[in-house]
Amino acid sequence: MTIAVDFDGVIHAYSLGWCDGSIYDPPMPGALAGLRTLMEHDAVFVFTSRDTQQVADWLFERGEFDITWEPPGEVICEFWNDRDRILVTNRKLPASVYLDDRAVRFTDWDQALAVIQPGAVITNPLTHTADVGVKRVISLYEQWVKAGPPPLGTPTARWWDKRLAELRGVLHLQQTEDPS
Ligand SMILES: [Mg+2]
After folding, report:
1. Residue 69 and residue 11: Cα distance in Å, rounded?
2. Architecture of domain 2-99 in CATH?
3. Ligand 1 is a single-atom ion; what residues have CB below 5 A from it?
């Protein structure tokens, strides 16, 4: 399958945010080995809003990967299936998995809003049934099971805080909808 990997915050540590536009940080711990492991079985492309050549050069200097970079505005492929090289692109190509430090897994809009805006009251009349509330908790649970344990090196307290915030988001949403 094809795996899309975000650059900033996933491969490049990005501790100061965009800053001056340079790639100033070292790789995230495990990033280069992680990319190599992915490439043993899957095609990998790196997606970034940066200049693709800048990212390609950085990856080559640190990981000596064989790299193809797509100049902005050019389309060199519709799909990426090559396991021997990394493609660097600023387009969102089709992929089975998107690895991104700022992603929210989408199941449905109620669940997504509950994670992004925990205090928001959803106006969709469907959400007023208890059934939907239960479904939302179940889908959150399934999402956790699918995501598996925290990656090695993740502080457990932070990982738990995130889970609890997601659960609080779903429960709070139900409270605000409860007419009693
Ligand atoms: Mg990112």
Report:
1. 16
2. 3-Layer(aba) Sandwich (3.40)
3. 6, 8-9, 101
